[in-house]
Amino acid sequence: MNNVAVRAFVGMGANIGNPAAQLADALETLADAGVLVASSGVYRSAPIGPSQPSFLNLVAELRVAEGPYELLARCQALEAAAHRVRRERWGPRTLDVDVLLFGDLVLRDPELVIPHPRLRERRFVLDPLVELAPEMVTVGELAAVADQDCERIAGPDRLRDLAAASPAGCS
Predict the structure, then answer these.
(1) Is 63 a catalytic residue?
(2) Catalytic choice (25, 44, 74, 84)
(3) What is the pLDDT of residues 149-167, one digit of tens each?
């Protein structure tokens, strides 16, 4: 990647364990690595898929000098640190971290698709993304997902407070 910094966005979600703490830990790891630019507020959203607790979600803006596959590896390391176990598609998880956007890159690979293939279909991604990069989301895209259950519950600075108040999860 020639060490040129790229503006990238990752989406994060969690709904088991202590979701707020897991999101806060992931953001702190990104900040400690010097790649975190900003974080959206925290959103509570209804799960997609099997019956399970609600999710806490946010989007983080990053400035990275690594390539997209290295960013994917960084995301997977965050999930591993949160003890993520993949049992079923769209099932409950301690932490899910997805590469949403990586500069202007369009990539279609079995291992990584950028932009994320469901980015424009999920309110829990678009609402926080518009906080950080309103130029990347259209009014029509927001209108198309307006019926999805998703609400902003706190700013990113409140994650540790949420973790202390609700250590058992999001339900």
Answers:
(1) no
(2) 84
(3) 999 999 999 999 999 887 5
